[in-house]
Amino acid sequence: MPLTSKHLLGLDGMSRDDMKLILDTAVSFREVLERPIKKVPPLQGKTVANMFFENSTRTRLSFELAERRLSADVLGFQATGSSVSKGETLKDTARNIEAMKVDMVVMRHSAAGAPHYLVRVIDANVINAGDGGHEHPTQALLDMYTIREKLGRLEGLHVCIVGDIAHSRVARSNIYGLRTMGARVSVCGPATMIPRDIGKLGVDVYHHIDDVLPTVDALNVLRIQMERDAGRLFPTLREYHNFYGVTRQRLEKAGRAITILHPGPINRDVEISADVADSEHSVILQQVLNGVAVRMAVLYLLSSRN
Q1: Which of 66, 121, 131, 175 is the 20 to 30 A CA-CA neighbour of 250?
Q2: SS3 label, residue 272
Q3: Which residue among 6, 20, 58, 150 is the active-site one?
Q4: Which residue in the list 25, 47, 59, 146 is annotated as catalytic?
Q5: Using CA atoms in the order 135, 240, 261, 63, what is the torsion angle rounded to 10 degrees?
């Protein structure tokens, strides 16, 4: 069955059936990634353009690998050194790329809503790879996939997102996705890093991490985004680590097995201690591998819809 939408712009408003379809389809592609020959032909003859107007390592490489594993032709685009630096608009850039008979566009942009604008000016399928502080749907889907793989379900679990909620598109997409799939979602961090109206999204708000750990099944630990001036929202990195850092001592004190996720890149010994990041509780590297499978599923399902 194809997805009900031609594009993947965000998880806000996406149906539970569509999310489940992506996660279930990703299971098959996760098995493909374990084979000696990891390439399958569903996107053979299709061309996918990766338009990245913002720096990225994991997401860009993950999409590129997913596209090649599906046998697609891959067209790479980065704003640095392109005609964008000469003043070309997003509309003209996208239309020129589509004129090369591109079937799908994966886009990351610093402006919230940029992928929504893109679908109004081109006919290709559009996948949002992160737009400003708005959403990052495939990251949330791979986070959900990883939690479900580790704990066997999503419904009824308590997942807490810790850290810089105010600047995080990952947090927003996770909240939309996890709540749609029946999980209880909490956020935790300093008051300066949590939007005042975040409760309207149906989440519980904590300002002390030790208060939430005794009831949580999984922690999704967010990076302190220094490039977005997040460092101005608390006195020092050491103080942040003392009050909100996920440490082995805190996990042992909680007295329960807690699955640790992190979208990366990690600031070791700031939001998470090095020994926890590398511990048996961590599924951070599994997230990276599962991200390829989830993105393969998204690309396949959108292509199937065509």
Answers
A1: 175
A2: strand
A3: 58
A4: 59
A5: 40
Q: Cα–Cα distance between 115 and 112 in angstroms, integer?
A: 8
Choice among 86, 120, 196, 232 that is catalytic? 86
Indicate the pTM of the whole model.
0.94
Within 10 Å of residue 34's Cβ, how many Cβ atoms? 9
- Residue in 30, 109, 134, 136 annotated catalytic: 136
* H/E segment holding residue 95: helix 90-98
Is 58 tagged catalytic?
yes
Mention every residue, 6+ apart, whose C-beta is less than 8 A from residue 275: 247, 248
Give catalytic status of residue 136 as yes or no.
yes
State how far Cα 59 lies from the chain centre.
8
In the residue annotation, 59 being an active-site residue is answered as yes
Buried b (16+ CB within 10 A) or exposed e, 235-260: eebeebbeebbbbeebbeebeeebbb
Position with higher pLDDT, 192 vs 29: 29
Tell me: pLDDT of 81 over 60.
Answer: no
108 belongs to the catalytic site = yes
Contact partners, residue 144, CB within 8 Å, separation at least 6:
19, 23, 154, 174, 177, 178, 181
- Residue 252: φ, ψ to 5°: -65, -35
**pLDDT given for residue 305 in this prediction:** 77
Strand partners, 131: 109, 135
Domains assigned to the chain:
16-135+288-305 (3.40.50.1370), 137-287 (3.40.50.1370)
